[in-house]
Amino acid sequence: MKDYSVRQYEAKDYLIWNTFISEAKNATFLFHRDFMEYHKDRFDDFSLMVFQKEKLIAVLPANRVGDEVFSHQGLTYGELIYGDKLKLTSFINAFTAVLKFLLSNKIDKIFIKAIPSIYPTKPSEEIKYVLFLMEAKLIRRDSLSVVDMRQPLKISKGRLEGVKKGIRNNLKIIEEPNFELFWNEIMIPNLEKKYHVKPVHSYQEMNLLQTKFPKNIRHFNVYYEDKIVAGTTIFESNQVAHAQYISANESKNELGSLDYLYHFLATSVFKEKAYLDFGISNEYLGKKVNEGLLFWKESFGASTIVQDFYEVETSSYHLLENVLI
């Protein structure tokens, strides 16, 4: 353990952090500092860098709230990020070093938002084993609806009928880099009407992020007679096309707008991806499922994987100290 050290990320580490992220096996563009810091005013950043002697071997995107640290609350997922050459033994030592560092900084707990298994480019479940060893508390489990694009698509008759409606109605799909029209005309009114909430991102934030990550953040609008009727924002990583936002006006069933849009994306734009991730249909911290939303996703051939959320006592690092024999 004497070879392992941990320190907090500083602005001077911008290049080394981003270079590491670009090569890590379980990283996506969400961990690039430009993505993490677009909302830095909302979070007290407490990201960590782990070294073995002088070599950077892992990073932890994180923020601090009082005496607790979270694998960053501004991100969909996050845990210890590392390269494919890091072995399980070194991972255990690295995570032990992180916990000791947190404890020395008066952090009692760390909350980890596990990365879903479809995102890493290589098997990356070391964290699950370590959390088992530490008797970490599973506090939430979300279900994600995922289409395996490597298999023949199994789209239901109902969805295919929607596609035919889209063709008959001469719908047009246009990829656009500006989010304002979709936000103001479709998504904000829908979220307000159905859930009395606002989007996580403003359209100004999305416009900014898209300029920084044009290959990863893509947006598609659907038009009927030159009027926007639906749209979706996709976060694209190495293996996954993730539906970050999906929304349509009240004519979606009549026009087939969302069916037509996602059939096009699955069979054309993202057909080379390994997975199409429709995201969760959960509410109440994973305890409830929106059945109608789930039905639509499964009609595209999606099936379920899970994302786990853990609570870890930093003082329990000692449970890792005698694992290696």
| Share in β-strands | 25-35%
**Main beta-sheet annotation:** 11 strands, mixed
Tell me how many strands there are. 17
The helix count comes to: 10
Radius of gyration: 21 Å
Question: How do the strands of the widest beta sheet line up side by side?
Answer: 2-5-6-8-17-9-14-13-12-11-10
Report the mean per-residue pLDDT as an integer. 96
What string, H for helix and E for strand, traces the elements in order?
Answer: EHHEEEEEEHEHEHEHHEEEHHEEEHE
Identify low-pLDDT runs. Answer: none
Taken from the alpha-carbon principal axes, the silhouette is elongated
The amount of helix comes to: 25-40%
Cα(first) to Cα(last) distance is 14 Å
SS-based class: alpha+beta
Labels describing this entry:
elongated, alpha+beta
In short:
The protein has 325 residues and is of the alpha+beta class.
Overview of this structure, please?
It contains ten helices and 17 strands. Helices cover 31% and strands 30% of the residues. It has helices at residues 14-23, 33-36, 88-104, 126-133, 157-168, 180-195, 203-212, 252-255, 257-269, 291-298; strands at 4-8, 44-45, 48-52, 55-60, 62-65, 68-71, 81-82, 109-113, 137-148, 172-175, 217-224, 227-236, 240-248, 275-280, 282-283, 288-289, 303-313. It starts with a strand and ends in a 12-residue tail after the last strand. The strands form three sheets. An eleven-stranded mixed beta sheet has the order 2-5-6-8-17-9-14-13-12-11-10. A four-stranded antiparallel beta sheet has the order 1-3-4-7, with helices on both faces. A two-stranded antiparallel ribbon has the order 15-16. The model has no long low-confidence stretch (mean pLDDT 96).
